[in-house]
Amino acid sequence: MQERGINSTFKKLIYESSEMVFLADDTFPYPIFYSNKAFEDQIGEKLIDRSLVGLGMDISSFIFKEALELSHNGNKYDFHIELPQDSSTNYFLFYKGEKVRDQGLPTKEEFQKFLLEFPDPQLVLKPDGEVFLSNIEALSLFGYSEDKKLHHLSEVEGLFDDSLQWKNWLSNAVSEHTIHRFSTNLTDPHGSQLNLEVASKQLSVAGVQYVLLSFKNISEKVILEKNLEDSSNFLMNLTEQVPGGLYQLVMDSQGKLNFSFLSKGIAQVLGLKPEELDNFTDISLAISRVHPVDLPQVIMSSIASARKVEPWQCQFRVKSDPKSEDYRWILGAARPQALENGDMVWYGYLTDISNQKEFEATLDESRKAAEKANQIKSDFLSMISHELRTPLNAISGSTYSLIHDHPQVHQKSELDTINFAVDNLIIMINDLLDFQKIEAGKLTIENAPFHLSSFINQIIKGLTFHARDSKNKLEVKLSEGLDITVSGDKTRLSQILNNLITNALKFTNEGEVKVTVNLINRSNGKAKVYFEVSDNGIGIAPEHQDKIFNDFDQVRPTFSTKYGGTGLGLSITRKLLNLMGGEIGLDSVVNEGSKFYFELEFEIAEIQLERPTLPNTYANQNSTLHLLMAEDNDVNALVLGKIISKWGFTYERVINGVEAVNAVNQTNFDCILMDIQMPEMDGFDATLAIKKISETPVIALTAAAKLEIKDRIEECDFDGFVAKPIDASELQKIIQEVILERNQSA
User: Fold this and answer.
1) Whole-model pTM?
2) Distances from the Cα of 31 to the Cαs of 51, 103, 301, in angstroms?
């Protein structure tokens, strides 16, 4: 809107009126110098500065009429005319409608008062630069008091920082009829630096030309813009230092997506040229570079982020060059924000993770190679174990048979030495296999019910001979409340206790080894139990107490020579306890003894097992037992046959699974001893076939570790398991248990 001296009441009434209003000068050629908003919206602001004469009208012919017809762009508009109310008013008011009638035009005095009281500095100049009128704000701007007159603009030209530029602009403003705007700097008389915006407009008053200059102090605006620019530059510089690129993605209410901001780093991440980045606002250009395989994932994850207003993250591949088939891996992440206008904005970043992916691929290949190597090692150890157990089985069985043939005293001593060596060799083989399984993460903890106090007593009973042979006293102390059935891995618990007790016996000479088991508490269906193995042996120095739990480590290298072992027993014990949720502790004093202890929590089994006992009449039935032995190895069969015969049992031998099934079809046996690895039909398939035709209990005999064939053993429903080399006492006990269980269930 163009303004010319209008009082505030008139301005409000006219400008805000819904009717079209404009003002024209009363002197030839009657230029239009003011219009209200309704006029500008409907006819256009471009009519400003055009005269009525220039529009093809003669105002004098309408001077005494009340209407004027204005034609514009083929449309005709009828305007009412209001003539000046007194000789001092030199404007015509043209309005459409009746609301403005009789409101009156501003007088020259009102115009002058309006100019003088205007809040911004105002100057009215003659074309030669003489100051015709100045308001108070203009005088203050140039350092003049209210009672002092500014005669000519040249008096203050020196205050402008670039006076030459100021003169050139002013010359154009005086000579041209259009509105001119100019930004300049001025140092006021107080030394303050001001940023000014100057606007000029030519006026015609009673045929005399003037120039209206309006000054606006925009110093705060310039400072704000400078701060914003500095902040923007800071952020831009910051984004250039951040690895990758930052972006702002906007999705409008119609679902259209576009980038509203892209840092320069985006060009590097996506392989764009600098000039390409400016035209990269369209999301479709970005999507076209995504690998076809990864595109569905990118789209679906983005949709999920938009629907749930949740952070987005995705790894995908993009083409670094549209003409190339080379892709680079990108990690994208963003946080969405829903705006009030319905738009969704993501603030995010993209970073190149190609090197990371390449490293991961290399790492994966290394992992697979390591797993393959571990598997080869595992297979090798398993094979070696099997090959070692077969001859050890012959040695162990033959030794057992000779010991029970009432040898002479010196022969028995030698046989005991052989037996002890075989037992140690078996322990070392088992340690190596268990260590390998733990390291490979393949050892699992079982959870089956067992009677706790009976289990502990069986372990102590099994080590009584060892204690007597090492000239030590082995005692056990059980607290009340342990006569319960709990669920756990009794095989691994047995291994832990055997390791600790045999170590204590090994490093104690003519002393005492004590096993203490206490029930700490019983609540919420669980029992917490404390285990302790103490001795008064050689003890362990403080500096070695951590070392003994390391793999293949012993207190001193000479210990292996003197005491035997692999240095894995305590390492495996600690790892097994960790798997079972426990932790081993140690208190030891050199030459006084050691105490190993740990706590374990067991679930109390819902079905309490009775303490296993054999009826007195069972011993008399032993001689009536008739067994089937399925064993293809002649040496193993010979040794096992001698053991069975010494028990007073009878047996028949077959050499493969087919013969075993046929034998069961023809003869009733009390128990079947089934070797797993046999020709024609192995022990697994033979047992499956036998279970279909007979209820005779079957015990698996194998040189393989039980965990390696655990699933097959359960699948075939074996009644028992004995590892080779066969412990004759253990085999006899299991035979008795499975037959007793069959008789009780019959």
Assistant:
1) 0.41
2) 4, 22, 65
